[in-house]
Amino acid sequence: MQAGQDFTEKDFFKEKFSDAELRKLLGDQLPSAIFNFKSVAFKKSGLLAETLTEEAMFELLLEEPRYWRRPLLVIDGTIIPGASVKQIKELLNI
């Protein structure tokens, strides 16, 4: 708990998401909502964003944590990828 907020933290560099966990996390969101097309890892991959299907992005997210927009917050079931410290403080009212 920090600043009166309960939270669960997961270091997905050390403990990758399973297929089921990622599907549960995404809910009705598409993988592109959390995919980081600007990451160094993605740029080095040689992949082109416009050629990737949502399912291909899903598989890439499972394989490579650097493709995630970080930090990734889930607040009341809403995914908030890539939030700044300022945005996080505003969202948590701290």
Secondary structure: elements and pairs:
Blueprint: H1 19-26, H2 40-45, H3 54-63, E1 72-75, E2 78-81, H4 85-92
Antiparallel strand pairs: 1-2
Give a short overview.
This protein is an alpha+beta fold and 94 residues long.
Please explain how this structure is put together.
By secondary structure, the protein is an alpha+beta fold. It has one domain. The protein has a two-stranded antiparallel sheet with strand order 1-2. The longest helix is centred in the middle third of the chain and has 10 residues. It is globular and about 45 Å long. The mean pLDDT is 91.
Report the β-strand fraction as a percent range: 5-15%
Mind summarizing the main beta sheet? 2 strands, antiparallel
Tell me the helix content.
25-40%
The overall number of domains is 1
Order of helices and strands: HHHEEH
Count of helical segments? 4
* Alpha-beta classification: alpha+beta
Output mean pLDDT: 91
Strand order of the largest sheet: 1-2
Question: Which of globular, elongated, flat, extended, rod-shaped describes the shape?
Answer: globular
Unreliable segments (pLDDT under 50, ≥5 consecutive)?
none
**CA(first)-CA(last) distance:** 13 Å
Provide key terms for this protein.
alpha+beta, 34% helix, globular, single chain
